[in-house]
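Second attempt. The first submission of Glutathione S-transferase had a stray character pasted in from the spreadsheet, which I only caught after the job came back as garbage. Lesson logged: always re-copy from the clean sequence file. Corrected sequence (219 aa) follows.
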Amino acid sequence: MANEVILLDFWPSMFGMRTRIALREKGIEFEYRDEDLWNKSPLLLETNPVHKKIPVLIHNGKPVCESTIQVQYIDEVWSDKNPILPSDPYQRAQARFWVDFIDKKMYDAQRKVWGTKGEEQETGKKEFIELLKTLESELGENTYFGGDDFGYVDIGLIGFYSWFHAYEKYGNLNIESECPKLIAWAKTCMQRESVAKSLPDSEKVIEFVTEIRKKFMLE
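This time the job returned cleanly.
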């Protein structure tokens, strides 16, 4: 059966980046379609009628929604190359735990760093750095979160790295001084072709964030 793979995405989305990386780790050719989130395409609304959000992975006409589910789906469908989730059930459960932690905590915290002012921003900055330190502690002395192998937790977190310069600019932070091992991990991830091709340039992200801040009158 032919594999027709389409990804409905939005270039600065750290969630869409996960799916891009997973597909490239597996060597899967896919058609990338960048969505206008202020004018969503009929295909996006049709394939994700519940949340109406990107990313949507369409495999042979069948949509799969939510980035973490997409990454697991990709790992199961194309299981013959570059496993993403560990084979051991306990290690697999731990990897899912940490990506769930990232999903529940990181987005809201990082949003406060660049998208708020005053006391709310200060609280958000502290919360964000604490989250990064928790993740850095889990990484330990390992190359990747899965030890020597790039995998599910790395894919779950690395997209946020493309936003780090924006966090630093608007949050007046120095993330490397706070979490040097996490930055070293990110730089190692960026050496992978799948990651380098999937993450946007950080300066482009800063420009995007600047426009959003102006729209919400934070500038």
